[in-house]
Amino acid sequence: MIGFTKQEKRYVIVLIVSFLSGLCFDYYNKKKVIAGNTWKDKQILEINTLADVTSSKPNKETISTEIRHLTDKKTDLTKKSLVEKININKATIEELQLLPQIGPVLAQNIIEYRNRNGSFKTKEEIQKVKKIGQKTYNKIEKSITVK
């Protein structure tokens, strides 16, 4: 390091140490993947173990339900939406977001419409909500009710 100032030498050393740390970190992560210690692999192992316990031939429905259970923090809401239709007159923002094509903004629009105009009389009335048209309605129609 001839010809460098003291501060330049420090910068070069920091760069070299950073580069070597990055290489070590990358090598460590590749080793984890090879060893099968990734989060996804653990989840698959848990699903396979569950499948072995529950039946000799797991069906796709059981496995997909378990994947949702293991990966979704809102497990209760997910199970509820799989079993029964969502009542758009009583649903919370979180429950409305479980519907296909409905994110936080549309869920808020539905609640605001409901508060302004009262309960929905028919499922089709949801199309009056801002940004919900025929295409969105067609995707959510089978998942909603107006009890």
Give an overview in words:
The chain has 147 residues and is mainly α. It folds into two domains: 6-73, no CATH class; 79-145, DNA polymerase, domain 1. It is 63% helix and 3% strand. It contains seven helices and two strands, in the order H-H-H-H-E-H-H-H-E. Strands 1-2 form a two-stranded parallel sheet. The N and C termini lie far apart (79 Å). 10% of the residues are buried.
Would you kindly provide a brief summary of this structure?
The chain is mainly alpha-helical and 147 residues long. The protein has helices spanning 6-35, 39-54, 60-71, 75-83, 93-96, 104-117, 134-140, and strands at residues 86-87, 144-145. It is built from seven helices and two strands, in the order H-H-H-H-E-H-H-H-E.
> Over all CA atoms, what is the radius of gyration?
26 Å
Mean pLDDT equals 76
Return the domain count. 2
Give the N-terminus to C-terminus distance in angstroms: 79 Å
Q: What about the largest sheet? A: 2 strands, parallel
* Share of residues in strands: under 5%
Helix amount, in percent?
55-70%
Query: Number of helical segments?
Result: 7
The counted number of beta strands is: 2
> Order of strands in the sheet with the most strands?
1-2
Silhouette = elongated
H/E element sequence = HHHHEHHHE
Low-pLDDT runs of 5+ residues are: none
Structural class of the secondary structure composition?
Answer: mainly alpha
